[in-house]
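On clarity, I found the account of how folds are encoded harder to follow than it need be. Since the whole study asks how a given chain folds, the encoding of that fold should be made plain. For the editor and my fellow referees, an illustration may be useful. An entry of this sort, consisting of the sequence and the corresponding backbone structure tokens, reads as follows:

:::
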Amino acid sequence: MHHDIEAVQATIHKESAFVERLLGEVGRVIVGQRAMVERLVIGLLADGHVLMEGVPGLAKTLTVKTLARAVDTTFRRIQFTPDLLPADLIGTLVYDPQHAEFRTKKGPIFSNLILADEINRSPAKVQSALLEAMAERTVTIGDQTYPLDQPFLVLATQNPIEQEGTYPLPEAQVDRFMFKVVVGYPGKDEEIEVMRRMATGSEAKIEPVVHPDDIRRARSAVEMIYMDPQVERYIVDLVFATREPASCGLKDLSQLIAFGASPRATINLARAARAHAFLRRRGYVTPEDVRSIGLDVLRHRVLLTYEAEAEEVSGDDVVNRVLGKVEVP
């Protein structure tokens, strides 16, 4: 067994060399926001879509654009608006009078990295067209079905729900995202650095430092990362604690949780924890990997009751209580 772990460790060490290059390149434009950038990279490595929530002006869009430039891949930004139609996203059949036939005009979704900006500004029809593509990795136009490019990753931003004119994503749709990252304000020192960089007016030129082949090889390496049965058990314990909080001594949460996390949560915790270990250049997963990505994987998968809303308890509060309570191996 030991020999295997050493072999895996050597592979991980070799394949993860690009991570620092990538984070360094992104850091030339983006100040701080390390957690957000790491979550995007984990999404890339674990093949998981990422939803980012935060008020406007926190460089969510800029971060995704910068990451896309640093990875040598195709990138499209789609601004979601109330009048966007599914065809604007996936494409449509266009009549060609010269040849008296319909031709397929592919939409912007045929790209490796998709930035779905302000996804909650569009009605449900458009959201579900995007989310179907995310789940199926194919798009149907007319009666033809087309496979999407690989890697295919959706990075979506949404405004906090309190804002006017938004269409909240249905719970089943939100579950399709591996992570929901809540982007906060920068610290004072970071904000000073942002101000200084903007004062010069010249944007740093981002070079592609990672090739899609690097990503593909890294994805295979991530799958090799060893996960101890105790860590597997820990992941399942966390997810079960959101479903049956009383069983792990969190009886008071039973009134607050309407639905616990689905099996997608379990799968995503495992995949994201492996990718987190990869970023740390380790060939095995520790409980700490699980804990550091736990909130981002679980916060949007635990549905609260009206009582929780009345008591102003958030999904984050509940997940943090679970992370604090479930025994760590």
User: Anything to note?
Assistant: The chain has a mean pLDDT of 86. Residues 175 and 301 are 6 Å apart (CA to CA).
